[in-house]
Design goal:
The chain is an alpha+beta fold. The chain has one domain. About 30% of the residues lie in helices and about 10% in strands. Strands 1-3-2 form a three-stranded antiparallel beta sheet, with no helix packed on it. Strand 2 and strand 3 form a beta hairpin. The longest helix is centred in the middle third of the chain and has 17 residues. InterPro entries: CAT-like_dom_sf, Condensation_dom. This is Syringopeptin synthetase B. One of its GO terms (cellular component) is cytoplasm.
Length: about 180
């Protein structure tokens, strides 16, 4: 079927909605007092594993929205992240300039709004002391901002920033959302 369709839209129409899988509803209520294995239908964890993961989340139990296994692509990304001795192969950089602090604040607030709206941007990965890695969706995650003070006398500002934050030498902490 893949090579018999002349366009992507024709392939999408041919595939249609067949075989769509519905994810189970989230079984962790916001006010629960403990997350138990029966609340996590998409992952196999012991109670000790769950308690250890929950204790690693800032805000603890009240900040855990869901826990589930990694998708195969995520497992591959985790492998490359862990295998990299230095830097992070999936970290990309971009440089933005703002004419005022107000515009910077508005941009940061817009990013925070996107984080609040999309689970994947509030997701951390845990693997240490677990049989298999899991992703933990936080109920709330705050955009981290790190102000860098640079002196134009030390050279081009963009080059100074790249030197400090070069993806070849900077690592993400994927245990943080």
């Amino acid at each position: 079927m893949l090579f018999s369709q002349p366009t992507l839209s024709a392939l999408a129409a041919a595939v249609g909605g067949k075989g769509q899988v519905e994810a189970p509803a989230n079984l962790i209520p916001a006010d629960c007092s403990r997350i138990t294995p029966d609340m996590l239908p998409l992952v196999s964890l012991t109670q000790d594993d769950i308690d250890r993961v929950v204790s690693s989340v800032p805000g603890g139990l009240s900040n855990v929205q869901d826990i589930y296994a990694l998708a195969p692509l995520q497992e591959g990304i985790l492998y490359h992240h862990l295998a990299a001795a230095e830097g992070d192969p999936y970290l990309q950089h971009a440089l933005f300039a703002f004419d005022s602090r107000e515009l910077l604040h508005n941009f940061a607030q817009a990013l925070q709004d996107v984080i609040a709206r999309h689970d994947i941007l509030r997701t951390a990965v845990f693997w240490e002391r677990l049989d298999a890695p899991v992703q933990v969706v936080w109920r709330e995650a705050t955009l981290g901002l790190d102000e860098q003070v640079l002196d134009p006398a030390d050279g081009d500002i963009a080059e100074q920033l790249l030197k400090r934050l070069d993806p070849r030498h900077t690592r993400l902490d994927i245990r943080q959302a």
